[in-house]
Amino acid sequence: MKILGLITEYNPFHYGHLHHLQASKKISGATHTVAVMSGHFTQRGEPSITDKWTRASMAVSCGIDLVIELPTIYACSSADFFARGSIWLLQQLGCITDLCFGSESGSINGMEIISDLLANPSQSYHDQLDTNLKTGLSYPAAQEGAVRSVLHGIFTEPANDYTDVFNMPNNILGMAYLKHLKIINSSIRVHTIKRIGAGYHDTDISNEISSASGIRKQINTTGKFDEIKRNMPGSAYEIMLKGFALNRGPVFMSDFDQTIMTLLKRSSKSDFLELPHVTEGIENRMLSCRTVSSSIEEFIFCVKNKRIPYSRIQRMLIHLLLAIRNPFAIKWYNDLIPPYARILAFNDRGREIIRICKDTSTIPLINKPSNFNPKDQTVRDLLALDYRAGRLFGSVLQNKKFSHADPDLIMSPVYLKSNGIEHV
Predict the structure, then answer these.
(1) Which residues contact 402 (CB under 8 A, 6 or more apart)?
(2) Which of 43, 64, 114, 326 has the fewest CB neighbours in a 10 Å radius?
(3) What's the pTM?
(4) Is the peptide bond before 140 cis (omega within 30 degrees of 0)?
């Protein structure tokens, strides 16, 4: 048995994801698949289009065997911490043989070379990074400059055009996955396939393989679903529409306008400084921009500049919404690792993986959270954050099961059998 790990968001599942899944299984020779998937909030600092159980069901209906949740602390963090949490989660299952990620380059060579340096940074790298940061560059730009300086000889070889490695979101995540696999000396085999169709940020849905961003924008701006039917596998499309009919979405950042703007107006400078990634005087921009902004979008464009990208500000706002603070976040980003694997959905092959994990996993697999009562307060706090994310996501829905309750304590994993859907 070969078990393939995929790191995903499926927000929502579309034909590009199906291509990634099928090509990954082919290149790895995998017989089974496990997807680590973000929950109710995503890496770009946005709420998911629909709840995590609906999205997980869409994935399993299209061929994923088991979906487990990436804890919220990692799911809505920077690419490096998102990757760290995902890699550790797959590693601790103890049965993952392969990992395959999509990339704009379609080649792993350049990412391997760069990730070697990032996993084992030299003193010259540290020195150049510090120099670059002192010039006012953002951290990603300073890091790119340091890597190019240290690996100058490699980058100037005609056969090694790694220019786009730093400029494309999937390449950046791929380097982060490789970095953390190297840091923990993992035996998981790594593959990459070239992303096809629309780009990550492309909102054009005229092609069959569009981006998830394009699908979400179409739903948000028109409220119509017929236009996206050609962009999604039939089963995923039907499951999503059923979720919407049950008032389990669609959800957008603007749904949190009133709540987040209220939190911004009541927060002090010291409150902002406790948020992860608030550095370089961003707190001062936040203080001034909140007084002249009437919506989240206005606030983000007010704070944004060449050193502070849109997605970073969105993540800060989600951290504010979910009450994610330092030093709690710093501990999980840098020192601690995912202490549990939350099951969201599975099929019969997924059941086989779960049985194997009972012997191989170094962390518990959570089926029913109401039965999981860790003694460690730090773990309890992490679990509480996942629950809080579920409650706040549910607060903007018209579904009473989500808006008037604690969905994580009443929802069960979705078991997709060949003859239908069953909750266990």
Answers:
(1) 51, 248, 390, 393, 394
(2) 326
(3) 0.95
(4) no
